[in-house]
Amino acid sequence: MADARFVLLVDRGILAVGGPDRRAFLQGLVSNDVDKVSPAQARYAALLTAQGKYLHDFMMIELDEALLLEGEAARLTDLKRRLSVYRLRAKATIEERADFTVAAVFGGDALAALDLPAEPGAARAFARGVAFVDPRLAALGARCILPRDGARSALIAAGLEEAGFDAYDRLRLGLGVADGSRDLVLEKSILLEAGFDELNGVDWNKGCDIGQELTARTKYRGLIKRRLMPVTIDGTTPAPGTIVFTEGRDVGEMRSSRDGHGLALLRIDAALDHRQLRSGDAVIIPERPAWMRLAEDGGA
């Protein structure tokens, strides 16, 4: 295709939840509705602490009578351990699937190359695995979960050109979408600060899950004062965690970045009033993404 590329995401991995109780088991734990996950529909979700703070985020899709959780490879063992604590008598299995690999497919023609509609989460069988539109934002393209043996050749056969991770990362940063623990602080970050509501990561009607009450309270009381936003960096790229300030006042901190673009967790008022923001030696210019809804404009 003219503008359709893929990158194998070596930092992503698969945790498979199987058994007859797999849906009921996960439903009471994660932020999205597991009953809406199917071979034709993916969902984005998170596992939180009891205080409603971030632990893990992942995409969920059904394949071969198992629910596949696509998350950070380096943290799959921790995710498995945390889920196992709640398994108790549930007839559910939890196993890492190293035989699968994950690819991101992106570019203007990416969804057409995989015969997918521009609908977040839409999925279909592909190359002995599954392809689905990124359930957060269709502009991010698609994800493929494929048998490790032959994944690259299957993607090339679909007319896709292999790209470097940096090209995909620049797209993500420009759209203002978090990349797991690169941008979210374990046991501290709040989902709604990172756009999980607008990015389809929370189902408000599914019933209880861990941390759900505090997440809902934050939403309905309008307690969100900071948001993760894309920024342009003019100067030396600040390290993650570097304070962002204006007129001597701390208004946020940097997260991940690449090639003069990054994400920063910023006070909403400071990000919107066009003051000059700085971090380290750099000028930081925030840009509100089109998908973001804020209480300030009646969108939250």
Describe the structure.
This protein is 17% helix and 33% strand. The longest helix has 11 residues, at 165-175. The protein has seven helices and 17 strands. A six-stranded mixed beta sheet has the order 8-9-10-7-1-11, covered by helices on one side. The protein has a six-stranded antiparallel beta sheet with strand order 13-14-15-12-17-16. The chain has a five-stranded antiparallel beta sheet with strand order 3-4-5-2-6, with helices on one face. It has helices spanning 22-27, 76-85, 110-113, 151-157, 165-175, 212-220, 268-272; strands at residues 5-8, 12-18, 43-48, 54-63, 66-72, 93-96, 100-106, 123-126, 129-133, 142-147, 161-162, 226-234, 243-246, 249-258, 261-267, 277-279, 282-286. The protein folds into two domains: 5-180, Probable tRNA modification gtpase trme, domain 1 (Gyrase A, domain 2, 2-Layer Sandwich); 225-300, Aminomethyltransferase beta-barrel domains (Elongation Factor Tu (Ef-tu), domain 3), CATH 2.40.30.110. By secondary structure, the chain is an alpha+beta fold.
Report the total helices. Answer: 7
Highest CATH level, the class of the largest domain: Alpha Beta
Largest sheet: 6 strands, mixed
Domain module tally:
2
The CATH superfamily name of the largest domain is Probable tRNA modification gtpase trme, domain 1
**CATH-assigned fold name of the largest domain:** Gyrase A, domain 2
Strand content: 25-35%
